[in-house]
Amino acid sequence: MTSKTITTIKFEVEKFNGKSNFLLWKMRVTSLLVKKGTHKALLRIEKKSSKMEDDEWNDIDFRAKTIMILCLSGEILYNS
């Protein structure tokens, strides 16, 4: 009998405030989207798989947008 160990890693992204390194923030947010299974939304609707239902695509897109919004500071969101 083998035992399996599951390790949970807490991953946080510092909110982008316009003053920190955007490329580093983008890389971290992209990694978070991959971890959450929503990175396909970055490919845009033109790259949507023909096998994927519209409801599934819309759900992935909405969750990806929500993650990105949560990774932005209030100041950035207010000025958008």
Give the radius of gyration. Answer: 16 Å
Mean pLDDT over all positions: 86
**Which strand-content bin applies to the residues?**
under 5%
Instruction: Give a count of the beta strands, DSSP E runs of length 2 or more.
Output: 0
The sequence of SSEs as H and E is HHH
| Percent helix range | 40-55%
Major sheet description: none
What is the first-to-last residue Cα distance?
56 Å
Q: If helices are DSSP runs of H or I spanning 4 or more residues, what is the number of helices?
A: 3
Extract low-pLDDT stretches: none
The class by helix and strand makeup works out as mainly alpha
Q: Give the overall shape.
A: flat
Q: Would you mind describing this structure in some detail?
A:
There is one protein chain. The protein has 80 residues and is mostly helical. It has a domain at 53-80. 46% of the residues lie in helices and 0% in strands. The protein has three helices and no strands. It has helices at residues 22-36, 54-70, 74-78. The N and C termini lie far apart (56 Å). 8% of the residues are buried. The mean pLDDT is 86.
